[in-house]
Amino acid sequence: MPLSSIRRLLAAVLVAVMIVPQALASASGEAVAATASAPADVVVLTTDFVLDGKLRLVAEAAAREGLALRWYRAGRDDEADVAAAVADSSLVLLDTPRGNDLGAVRQAFSAALSGWRGPELTVIGGQGSGRGLDPAHAARLAEYYSFGTRANFEGFFRYWAVEVAGIAAGSVPAPIRFPDSGIYHPDLPRLVADTPADYLAWLAPREQLRGVAGGRIAVLMSQGLFSADQLDLVDAMIAHIEARGASPWVFWFGAGEREGMDALLTVDGHSAVDAVINMTHLRGLEARPRELAALDIPLLQAFVYRDGGVADWRADDGGIPMRSVPAFLAIPEQMGAFDPVVVAAQEDGEVVPIDAQIDLLVGRAVGLARLRHIAPDQRRLALMYWSYPPGERGVSASNLNVPRSLENVTAALAEAGYRVPATDAHTFEQVLPTLLDPWQGRATVQQWAGDTDTWQRLPLTDYRAWYDVLPEAVRARLESRWGPPEQDPMFIDDDAPGFLVPAWQLGELLVLPQPARSPGDGSLASYHDGALPPSHGYLATYVLVREHFGADALVHFGTHGNQEFLPGKARGLSVDDDAWLPLGELPVIYPYITDNIGEALQARRRGRAVTISHQTPPFAPAGLHGELLELHDLIHEWEMLDEGPVRASAERSIIERVGEGTIYRDLGWTPEAMAADFIAFEHDLHLYLHELASDAQPLGLHVFGSHPTPERRVAMLMQMLGEPLIDALEVEEPEELFVDDYRKVASTPPWQFVARFVLDGEDPAALNNETLRELARQALAWDRAMTGNDEMAHLLAALEGRYIPTSFGGDPIRNPDILPTGRNLYGFDPARQPPAPAGAGAPAHAAALNPTHPPRPGARSPPPIASPGVATSWGAPGRDCPGRGRGQSAANSPRNSSPATASATATGPPASACRCGPPRRCATRVLWRRRCCTCWGWNRAGTRAGDSTGWRSCPPMNSGDRAWTWSPRSRACTATSSRSSSSSWPWRWSASPNWTNPATRWQPTRAHWPRD
Fold first, then answer.
1. Higher-pLDDT residue of 26, 840
2. Tell me, what DSSP letter sits at residue 9?
3. Alpha-carbon gap, residue 811 to 617, rounded angstroms
């Protein structure tokens, strides 16, 4: 491997001394020693985080002073061998760059270190401490070692030999110090510029001389690359940037600096660069997004594969190991990073650059920089839409009205100065479906081309110019499935042979359908087949967009396409993987529905896209319709009847009606069981109908860049406020709010309350009730976020190569904080796993995971459902229903088997979990069914509440202004309140023991709660 520029420069200013080659051998595989069996004068203890390349350099520096050095790694080398080496050494050096490295080393080699009484130097994060060493010596040695480079390592051992051990004489060079932050270029006179102004003063004449037109690409590196003298990857990045006609701006700063990017990338108050490529373990989750937003530059992610060499990475289907995802993918994604590209691999203790991957990433960065420097009227754009499910002629995306959305987009582009005509939705409705016909096999390309002019041709020579330089293995993979390009269904062999591509050009905007995975095959299997490579026609379409049409950016429009699901690695793909072959270096912007987080991550990681979140459609409670509404009314009639023939007749009518359908089977009942235990069945059926009624139904489709009508926003806001609003309004019979005809939702108290402020403009400050006042203010804040979304503004910003703020995704009813939309979606936020309310509700999840019957006084609880201490929290449930993972932990805990814990775990789920409101009154077991919950109460005799042999009185009410009386006729409790008149509550209140004192205290339990 060639020497890096820094080595060459430092060698020029140092006295030339020949370094005698030494044999490399040690327990860990490599070291410099006089002989393979000679004792080590210096023992280095470290972890796998420190590269062998650095340690070889340190060993060579030791050899110059006649010292033998061996190194050992925690978790890899035998402690007995380490103990023997330590006992014969003169110095033990702990090389621990990170805090956790020190703990790992001391734990792995505790016995060897505890018996060592000689000098010991610990270097951690650039700081040093010594044992058995003079503090001044320890500080100076740590300074040499932490600044690194060949010269400083040689100074380290020279200082040790002369000043500490006294085994040599002569002068000792001072350490060569590097600043805590700076900008690096191998051609700088001192390698490093301290400030952006200094670097720009040096760079500007070079840019003039070279005629730089590709912008400036910043690369964030680690200062540790200096100390390890491992700058080959950085130098390769610089070479590729300059080869693209751009200027490199390689910088670093301390991990704890809150304004590290601002300080190193700003000149005269403005960003000096056009994009940043991150090559570090980036920290500062609060500071970095703020800095990037102020600089207004995109962040791309480079990755070094550390689980083997280049060949190992190419063979790794994962691409980036899962253990690296949190630190090197998930956290940077929260800051805004996208397009994770593996640019190097660790091979034989060195970081080996992968040129094709570096060129791919640098090309994308230069493409983004280009967007920043060309005017809108000079930009050419492509927009791909799709038809899902495949095979259909409809134009659709997930809950998005595509024609009306494209009307908005073209109008916005025209207003922003693009040479794109504003086009109405009706025209899109007429043209877009026709472009699908050749892909879906409804017509041959020859027939179709004769009937329309909405197509473009990619000459075979242009396709061959791209295709023939692909690696042979890639071409063989494609042709084994599809044959040569000339056999593709989209190929036309005439006087000008080439590929016909259905496309509609609107000025400088090319609108076209995303190609079918398998032309003429409309099956879902072909859409998602992980082994099906793209056809030649598929690839030709993207080549036409990139090379022939010359698009500066591509908009993949709406959730979701098929390119991100093409074959290839799971993460950290290769330039030769099928999923990345179509895209090349083209910047991709991808509008995506905010509640589909998992697939949005695929668009970011495998689709190389910046996502622009858009709202879901507005929702309203579904209510009950037709026969279900009649069935619900019949249930209420039955509940009001006394025992006797009429009640029995109503019971039979309910069973007959239910028997005509499949509801009873959905609930796990049989006709015989319904007749034998009708009270229990009626309870299940009633709750199920309430659940159906309160479930949300979409009201139309979302239009990108717009917002729902005021009335529909009221329905959304009412559901977002959820049960706290219903409770604050003291709604009578809240379970019955939405079981009526859905068109009557505007007559409900929650809807009318929200409408007062959103529609009528009433000021919340006029409310005397503090709770209602805050709820009204919250509704208005969410309404402003809904109407003031950034969808179109950030689409235009992304097309200008600017920074897009990030946000977690989710359902806006359960996660209103996702508003406003128009942000770059990320999937995992450790700070929100789970939020405080979900943590409080975790015991209820634990109860739900435990057995199907609640504990009774004196009964032994069953064992945990899994091994104690074992819990699982999957990504999607962790995002969508926080608290479940913590609940499983509680279920697995041995403490959960006690009666006292059973009482504590029966409080129910949080408002954000599983579509249920907070079950604050549930003092017994919680059942989970169909995303909602049910409480069963148990009386002193152990029978279910509501059974004919059960209780006939109301439990005591622990409220100063309410009293409960039992109505035999309605078989329910009547509430008498000082604030309102008496009313009969439709849910069942049951006496159930408080397990902390089952003999004396009983708590009321609500059977069911409406959806939050």
1. 840
2. H
3. 11
- Residue 454: exposed, middle, or buried by beta-carbon count in 10 A (0-12, 13-18, 19+)? middle
The tokens describing 177, both together, are 């110090």
Confidence check: pLDDT of 422 > 90 = yes
Position 229, amino acid? D
Please provide the DSSP assignment of 452-492 as one string.
-S-EEEEEHHHHHHHHTTS-HHHHHHHHHHH-SGGGSTTEE
Amino acid at 563: Q
Run of H or E residues at 120: strand 120-124
pLDDT in tens, 495-512: 889 999 999 999 999 999
Q: Which residues contact 1 (CB under 8 A, 6 or more apart)?
A: 232, 350, 352
Has this prediction a pTM greater than 0.85? Answer: no
- Yes or no: say if 145 and 152 are a contact pair by the CB < 8 Å rule: yes
Q: pLDDT confidence of 937, banded at 50, 70, 90?
A: very low
d(CA 946, CA 989): 9
Tokens of residue 10, six digits: 């430092």
229, 149 in Cβ contact below 8 A? Answer: yes
Per residue in 531-561, is it b (16+ CB within 10 Å) or e — as a string?
ebbbbbbbbbbbbbbbbbbebbbbbbbbbbb
**What is the distance between the alpha carbons of residues 516 and 524, in angstroms, rounded to a whole number?**
11
pLDDT value of residue 695 = 67
The DSSP secondary-structure symbol of 385 reads E
- CA-CA distance, 833 to 618, in Å (whole number)? 27
CB 61 within 8 A of CB 113: no
pLDDT in tens, 29-73: 344 433 334 456 899 999 988 888 889 889 999 998 889 999 999
* Dihedral pair phi/psi, residue 751, rounded to 5°: -65, -45
pLDDT, average across residues 899-928? 33
Q: Which residue has the higher pLDDT, 426 or 997?
A: 426
Helix (H) or strand (E) holding 786: helix 770-787
Neighbours of 240 (CB within 10 A): 23
The β-bridge partners of 975 are: 964, 983
CA torsion through residues 977, 982, 986, 989, sign: positive
Tokens representing 166 are 């006294």
Cβ contacts of residue 572 below 8 Å, gap of 6+? 303, 305, 313, 318, 319, 320, 340, 341, 342
- Distance, first Cα to last Cα, the chain: 62
Rounded to whole angstroms, the Cα distance separating 28 from 149 reads 23
The half-sphere exposure of 690 on its side-chain side, counting CA atoms within 13 A, is 27
Contacts of 983 (CB under 8 A, 6+ apart): 732, 733, 974, 975
Q: In what order do the strands lie in the sheet with 69-73?
A: 23-24, 31-33, 69-73, 42-46, 91-96, 120-124, 127-131
Rounded to a whole number of angstroms, the CA Rg of the chain reads 35
Q: Look up tokens 């042999």; give the residue.
A: 949
**Residue 529's pLDDT band (cuts 50, 70, 90):** confident
Neighbour-count burial for 61-74, b at 16+ CB within 10 Å, e otherwise: bbbbbebbbbbbbb
- Three-state SS letters, 891-903: HHCHHHHCHHHHH
CA 508 to CA 377: how far, in whole Å? Answer: 8
Round to whole Å and give the CA distance between 351 and 347: 6
Sign of the torsion formed by the C-alpha atoms of 733, 736, 741 and 747:
positive
Q: pLDDT for 370-393, tens place per residue?
A: 999 999 999 999 999 987 766 667
What per-residue confidence (pLDDT) applies to 386? 86
d(CA 184, CA 198): 11
Phi, psi of 146 (to 5 degrees): -70, -35
Identify the bridge partners of residue 973 per DSSP, sorted by sequence position: 966
